[in-house]
Queue: 2 jobs
Job 1
Amino acid sequence: KDGAISALRGRLLWFVDDPHAIGEAAHRYVEDGLLVIEGGLIKAAGEASELLPTLPAGAPITDHRPHLIMPGFIDAHIHMPQTQVVASYGAQLMEWLNKYTFVEEQKLAQQGHAEKLSAFLLDELLASGTTTAAVYCSVHKQSADAFFAESHRRNTRMIAGKVMMDRNAPPALTDTAESGYADSKELIARWHGKGRQLYAITPRFVVTSTPEQMAASQRLVAEHPDCFVQTHINENRAEIAFARELYPDAADYAGIYEDYGLLGKKSLLGHCIHMTKREWRAFAEAGAVAVFCPTSNLFLGSGLFDWQRARHESVKVAVATDIGGGTSYSMLRTMAEAYKILQLQGQSLSAFDALHAITLGNAAALGLDHLIGSFEPGREADVVVLDPAATRAMAHRLETVRDLAEELFVLVTLGDERNVVSTYVAGERLSHCSTN
Ligand code: GUN
Ligand code: ZN
């Protein structure tokens, strides 16, 4: 079965480069296309007329015409323990953390709860067409074990880590510099590189980590340079003031992470809204990734991410839902909100920019573009099949579109999980339950 060849037929769309940099030449679109899969990897992508004769006799072909076939979406920042925090009323970051988030996260100490939330999150992501995500678990070591076990069972390529926090959180939610280090180390040994699982060293943010824990994180990074680092920065004014108060000797917020060796090529820093010129430069020099979380930044009233500035400063950008500060699991909905955030700043985002961002763009920002994010031969066959006319309003609107760019812009602006017909993980089709 492993070496068996199969194929998907439909309208293929994928990226080979950044459309913002090189325009139309960045995408590949094949109206009657065939995606050939062998052993869970892409074997070929191109014209059905050319590839059909190359298939061995009896190779199964799934006909998805007239639907779009794209690489699975990638979400660069999401919190597994917050699926029951989404849509909590009336607070900005620090109050929202204390009043809602830290309350729910304590429940992950209960037997079976992390398993339940992990299964729910993976179901919901896959139903939304997302096949890879960078995931924060809770402070409990078993929350990361539960998430990785569930992801490994499904063979999804996931990045995750146990949150480390040793202050400014309820006692039930804190570890210590030593236990956070030891637990992370154990999880890395158990999960990093096991099947498709990857580990992210996860000090939550400087507000909840003592200098001792930051130093312990630095040791983890030095000992495991192939692991990711994920954390938060410059999201909210009160948060920034608190961070500066706790680390008065640092140049600025980014300087705190720099001082502990946590700003590097594999570092994913959520939000990056209120950045100084020096901080942008520090990111560029370190090759660190700014993670833009549109629905969260709007919902928590945090501010407007300046993507143009990031480009200007040559800082890598990834995009993400940030559930449960964010309000949608859908990367399509996320990009519709990104468009509006850029509109408020006189910037723009074409449908090609948006669809690149959630596939090859995020893969490249994560340094995983040799594995996922496109239909180049040899990439893992994580695939989403989309019906742009899935809703009455969308079918109606599509009556008047004149070209692919317009059709895709309707898909990005009005689309969500209702447009997802099928999701494939390493070539295997899922019979996911629809969420609508
Ligand atoms: N900063 C520290 N923790 C969090 C979190 O859980 N969500 C968001 N949006 N920001 C944070
Ligand atoms: Zn977050």
Job 2
Amino acid sequence: SRLTRQPDLASFQQSPAQVALEVHKLVMVGEGGVGKMALMTQFTYGRFAREVERSIDDSFLRRLVVDDVPVIVQIHKTDVNEGGLLQDREARLGEGFLLVYSITQRSTLNRIHTHHEHILRIKGPGGAGIIIVGNKCDLEAEREVSLKEGRDLAKELGCAFMETSARDRISVGEAFVDVVRQIRRLKNEVPS
Ligand code: GDP
């Protein structure tokens, strides 16, 4: 299935009813195939696309309301394969990060720690909202990473955590909303 091209941020923002809406940039980080695009598609379009046009790799935009306050999230994705690192440019760009692995592939969990460290180094502690996301939780029969392992990693790194299914729309919106709340909290904090 083909996705239509998204309007750019400026035209998206200038709806008559809304002026100067809060905008947050989110970055999906994880190995290829863990379901980053599927999560973005589910969140933005409300459907699961088994095969997304790979050429459409621009950011996705969605307007939503979190705690009664409207916000636009601009979602980017980045594949970090074969021991690759998140690019500094992408790390700087993001205000919120979804570190995604697949519960069906243990190897995709292994580098979450490294990505987290890298983000902290670039953004500083408390410089970004971060959630670890264990995707494909609908594939219980193929599970290689337990819920507890995901939770324990998140606890160790001091991050939020959720298991999601882009296919069955489990906790997809919740994961994005959690990051928006974190960003707002961080922005409202007075540095000590
Ligand atoms: P990306 O490379 O991280 O962007 O991964 P994609 O979004 O392209 O997903 C890779 C493959 O996994 C595709 O065939 C998706 O249909 C499939 N997939 C993604 N999320 C889920 C999920 O939650 N459940 C299941 N069963 N399949 C998924």
